[in-house]
Amino acid sequence: MRTLKEIIKDHIEYRRQLVQLAKADMKKAYGGVLGMGWAIIRPAILIFVFWFAFSVGLRKGGDVEGYPFFLWLIAGMIPWFYMRDMITGGAGSIRRYKYLVTKIKFPVSTIPTFVSMGSLATHAGLVVLMIGIFLLFGYRPTIYYLQIPLYMILMFLFFTAWGLFSGVLSSISRDFLNLVKSLTQALFWMSGILYDANGIGQQWIRNILLFNPVTIVVNGYRNALIYQKWFWEDWQQLVNFAIVYAVMLLLAVWVYRKLKKDIPDVL
Fold this sequence. Notes:
The protein has 267 residues and is mainly α. It has helices at residues 2-13, 15-29, 38-57, 69-91, 93-96, 98-102, 111-136, 148-172, 174-189, 203-209, 213-227, 235-259, 263-266.
């Protein structure tokens, strides 16, 4: 409990620096001539590849609830881009900004937070672009869109906690960071991004997937954009999310308390 209070205190005390560092992290991530244009180009290329593979190549991309498969696809892909960046970027955040730890004595617990803030700002831009694409296809925003900020907050909270947990472990062991990077692609295929996890026939597999925060967030976005369902209609998934988030937060605080003194020496 004392460690959690310390983490919260550091975030409040350094709140202005976090905003500035989040902006700097975004500029660092999207350098080059095109700058922030890469925040759109990279996801667009990947979405096009999957759309082509499923709709043109395999011809398995039929309409979903009256919406073209392409719209159903981007409704799940857009939140995945943020989560993917935080799974790997959060894990490598402390190593990436080790000078803040070894030279400036910046609070370690806040480093994954400003990395997550930068990624969330990019994600918000992609959400606006996604809504624009829906409009181009003739689908106007509905009242269910009001749920999107809720899922953005839930996503931010979980993956910021993940960033602290994995960032501390990765700063101690580079092997852990390599393991995370190796498993990220497997997580993509096992999280219901390219298929509906609720439609899996084996109940025990479906139940496991519905404890996966990636699956829960993707389902939430699609409920808001495609299926037009309120979050309380899938209350069990929110309960699952709360349980997994509580466990992740406890692990993050515990790992930080145990290893924070060793981080500057290791880095």
